Amino acid sequence: MAQKQSGDLRHARTGIELRPGLDGVPATQSAICDIDGEQGLLTYRGYPMQDLAANSSFLETAFLLIWGELPSRDQLAEFEHAVQMHRRVSFRVRDMMKCFPASGHPMDALQSSAASLGLFYSRRAIDDPQYVYDAVVRLIAKIPTMVAAFQLIRKGQDPIQPRDDLAYSANFLYMLTEREPDPLAARIFDRCLMLHAEHSLNASTFSARVTASTLTDPYAVVASAVGTLAGPLHGGANEDVLAMLEEVGTAENAGAYLDEAMAAKRKIMGFGHREYKVKDPRAVILQALVEEMFARFGHDELYDVAVAIEREAESRLGPKGIYPNVDFYSGLVYRKLGIPRDLFTPVFAIARVAGWLAHWREQLGANRIFRPSQIYSGSQLRAWMPIDERVTAPAA
Ligand SMILES: CC(=O)SCCNC(=O)CCNC(=O)[C@H](O)C(C)(C)COP(=O)(O)OP(=O)(O)OC[C@H]1O[C@@H](n2cnc3c(N)ncnc32)[C@H](O)[C@@H]1OP(=O)(O)O
Ligand SMILES: O=C([O-])CC(=O)C(=O)O
Question: What CATH fold (topology level) applies to the domain 31-367?
Answer without folding.
Answer: Citrate Synthase; domain 1 (1.10.580)
